[in-house]
Amino acid sequence: MITDREKAAFEAGIKLGVIYHQFVGTPIARETAGAVEAAIEAAIGLQPYVTEIRVRLNRDMMVSNRFGYSELAGKMFDVEITTRVGETSCRARLRLEDDYPMMEVVGFL
């Protein structure tokens, strides 16, 4: 039988994977980054077990191409998410670590 703690960690990991794989490649510019952050938070926040989510995108990495935008890259993400299953909450994050977009469980509440 799976525990609430295991399911909360699984749900957090699934949500971070969705953010990474669904949004990488999205056209983005510094002027639209706030709207994209809000859209990701709103979309992922609708999913079961999500109690908190914060998305920040590294605007310094947004170098415009000749058409005036760049593409969202995994290295641009700084995301924290909290999922709750039963009485257990899991906090996880996606952020750049040693030049790699790392997903990790931060802790349980």
Based on Cα principal axes, name the global outline. Answer: elongated
User: Could you estimate the helical fraction of the residues in percent?
Assistant: 25-40%
User: Secondary-structure element sequence?
Assistant: HEHEEEEE
Extended strand count: 6
Nearest-angstrom radius of gyration? 15 Å
Helical run tally: 2
Order of strands in the sheet with the most strands?
Answer: 2-4-5-6
**What oligomeric state is this?**
single chain
Q: Proportion of β residues?
A: 35-45%
Description:
The protein is α+β, with helices and mostly antiparallel strands and 109 residues long. The protein has helices at residues 4-23, 33-45, and strands at residues 27-28, 50-57, 70-71, 77-85, 88-97, 100-108. The chain has a 4-stranded antiparallel sheet. The chain has a two-stranded antiparallel sheet with strand order 1-3. The protein is elongated and about 55 Å long. The model has no long low-confidence stretch (mean pLDDT 97).
